[in-house]
Each structure stands twice: as C-alpha cells, then as structure tokens.
Amino acid sequence: MSGVGVARQAGVVKIFDAHCHLQDRRIASVAPQLIRTALDSGVQRFVVNGVSEMGDEYPSIIPCFGLHPWYVNERSPNWFKSLREFLAETPGAAVGEIGLDKGAHAKNIDFGEQVDVFRQQLELAKVLEKPVSVHCLRAFGDLLEIMLSTGPFPAGVILHSYIGSAELVPGLAKLGSYFSFSGHLTSMKPEKAKKMLKSVPKDRILIETDAPDGLLSVKTSSSFPFPDVASTAETENQFGDSAAEATSLSKEGLNHPANIHRVLKYVATLLEMPEEELAELSFQNATRLFSYPGSKVNSDG
C-alpha cells in the first residue's frame, strides 16, 4: 500500500476529509485498507492530526501537529519547542489539533492552562501562515474572545466537528474560520443544525469524518425523514474486499474515512443542496485552505 496516491477515478465524486485520526491505535493496524477503501470511494485527501511517517508514505495525507487540550497535563517542559521543530522539519504540515474543552473528558484539566497552551499554538499558526484545526467543546465564548484578541487569521482556522450556534457563525467567520462538519452534527436537533448550517458562508463549509470517532447516527422521524445511506453489503459489493475491514469497524461503533459519504448526504439534506454540489464546494474550499506554501496540495496544483 506504500505510496498510494490521490484517487482520480472517472465518475466518482471528489471528497476531501478535512479532519481524521488514521494513526489512532484503534484503527492504525488496518489504516492501509481504510485508506484504499476511501480512495476507491472518491476521498482524494485526508487531513490527519498527529502524524509524520504516514504523511511521508501516502501522498493523499496532509499531516498536522499540535497539542490537544486533553493532553495538556501530560506536556513536557519543552513541548512548544518540540512542536516548532516538528513543523519546521515537515513544511507540508498544518497545525492541529489544538483547542479548548469544558466537557467531561477534560474536567480534570485546568482551563487556564488549556487557554495558555491554546493561545501559544494559535499564535504560532498565525506566524507560520498555516491553517489550524481547532477542537472546541462548551467553550465557544472563550474561543471567540481569544480569536478576537489574536486574529484575524488569513491562513484559516478550522472549527472541526462544529456544533456551535448559528449566532456565533458571523463573528467566527469574520476572523477567518472555516466550519467542518462530521457525524457529531447528529448530536444537534435537525432543525437547529439546519439553521446553523444555513448561516455558514458557502466558501467556508468543510466536511470530515473525525475517524475513528464521529460515526454518524441518524434517527429518522416524520418531521425530518433522512434518505437511506448505503448498507454494509452494498459498500462491500461496490468497493471490494478492502471494504470488509471498514464495514466491520462500523459495526463496532468505530468510524472510517469512507463514511464521509454519509456525512455528505446528511449535510446536503439539511442544506437542501445536491450532494454533488456540496462535495464540489467543500472540496474546493479545502483545497484552497490547504494550498499554503510547502503543502503537497499546493505542489500538486
């Protein structure tokens, strides 16, 4: 599988997974098969947070480096120096995943320390003129305040798996934010999600899987019927043996990049937009965002 490139199959819609974690220990052993399945389905690029070797091996992978808020307590005294070195040694990398979290997972992590770590990395991304992928949970007011004091961000801030309010969108967009949507969107009521999605400028919409997390789960109702998505059997028939690993992961509640088609369908339904149009729109947005100097997207033209 080494050296698998960018998929260019005729007749297959092009998709850009703007945020995933293919190096995660839960799926790392089957990552080559997952990448092949995703490429065969039309996913041309993957933004993978926290990888180096995988980015070297796969032309389709854009690596990112950053300290996630969940690991702030585990940082070394030289963490920021190490991060700068990683980014200097990997000019094609973006920054991420960084962020702020007031949820249960981060309840034992001092929020003041999270803010300090986040601010340093946000400012570094701005200096390096690189896009930065941001995790934000129950801290959007704090995020906006910090971005107002340090922005704007011409290179872009990716609000990954965005589930904030529609009211926050204009202020965040003005500062350079892009809004990336995953299966986590189904944690919002469909009517609220629809209002928020329609408030996002079309040139700032991205889609992602957040694999192996973010598996989309939609409960259909008479008030919001959701179109059927491809079944496991249909996926395996369409993409062959390499899809077996992917579909078995879905049965275990783990996500994988080929599932981005489900995200595409859900977001397109809420936006009342053809899937093909949303795929092209989000692909163009991601390509523009990740075409910074040194990026393999930029070098590919």
TrEMBL record:
A divalent metal cation 1 binds at H19, H21, E97, D210. Pfam families: TatD_DNase (PF01026). Keywords: Metal-binding. A divalent metal cation 2 binds at H135, H160. SUPFAM superfamilies: Metallo-dependent hydrolases. Coiled coil: none annotated. InterPro entries: Metal_Hydrolase, TatD-like. The keyword Nucleotide-binding does not apply. This is TatD related DNase. It comes from Musa acuminata subsp. malaccensis (Wild banana). The lineage of its organism: Eukaryota, Viridiplantae, Streptophyta, Embryophyta, Tracheophyta.
